[in-house]
Amino acid sequence: MHIGLVGLGKMGGNMRTRMREGGVTVIGYDRNADVSDTESLEALVEQLPTPKVVWVMVPAGGPTHDTITALADLLGEGDLVVDGGNSRWTDDKIHADLLAAKGIGFVDCGVSGGVWGLQNGYALMCGGSTADVAKAQPAFDALRPEGESGFVHAGQQPGAGHFSKMVHNGIEYAVMQAYAEGWELLEATDVVDNVPEVFASWREGTVIRSWLLDLLVTAIEDDTHLDKIRGYADDSGEGRWTVEAAIDNAVPMNVIAASLFARFSSRQDDSPAMKAVAAMRNQFGGHALHTPPPPGGDANPD
């Protein structure tokens, strides 16, 4: 299979590598010429055989919309666009309709795996017609983890994949918050002598073992009291969208909503629990830490 990949950042660059290792021929384009395989979006499209498949991996919102709009003018009938970014699911129908007017297919694909996806594989949640998903299946097979899980065709409607990923991220908010609050309570008392060892002991045999727990253990083994981290955690959008969808559908979502609001609270004070949330986000996704600036410099200049 040949595929074009637009956006070669932290996720996109690793995805290009994993697809190539899985036998897929990938032509990547990025505005950063140092990582790009070709000089322009037009050149990328020209180099692909028909039917052309282009995977978009750029920031949600305006950048994704602009890229898909440009591809609508460059691609033709029978071609396919896959949006693998963190787009809001309601944008998918807009993009699907835009492309369908020119006979171009559309698949929305929620991607989870962060900076570890290159090694472990990416969990993929797709929305779109069976025929369109089939066109990109070799790429999905190269990206997904080994084993029976890690890939789902969530629904035929545009948005099914991103809606599934949105709910996944909402759950992620809540699980991280629970671990973080437990860590803060253990740290707040003098009953437990070694909090990192307690968390590490939960990694086997308990009902709360998970990859997020593994990542928190890694973080607190490196920085026992998370003194190097400010208790500030960003929210990247999906948590808000999950709570909004819950309101629209009259679904009670007490825990996920509370975990979202806890992140808002972190911007008002230096929360110990939010240090743990920030540490986990950095471990799985390479998300920025809001650390104090070094002498004479700025924190997180990117």
From TrEMBL:
GO MF annotations in UniProt: NADP binding; phosphogluconate dehydrogenase (decarboxylating) activity
Ranges of residues in domain 6-phosphogluconate dehydrogenase C-terminal: 161-294
Oxidoreductase keyword on record: yes
GO biological process, one term: D-gluconate metabolic process
Gene3D superfamilies on file: N-(1-d-carboxylethyl)-l-norvaline Dehydrogenase, domain 2, NAD(P)-binding Rossmann-like Domain
Keyword Oxidoreductase carried by entry: yes
Stretch forming the signal peptide: none
UniProt keyword terms in alphabetical order: Gluconate utilization, Oxidoreductase
InterPro entries: 6-PGluconate_DH-like_C_sf, 6DGDH_YqeC, 6PGD_dom2, 6PGDH_C, 6PGDH_NADP-bd, NAD(P)-bd_dom_sf, Pgluconate_DH
Domain of life: Bacteria
Family: Belongs to the 6-phosphogluconate dehydrogenase family.
NCBIfam families: gnd_rel, PRK09599.1
Protein name: 6-phosphogluconate dehydrogenase
Organism: Nocardioides psychrotolerans
Lineage: Bacteria, Bacillati, Actinomycetota, Actinomycetes, Propionibacteriales
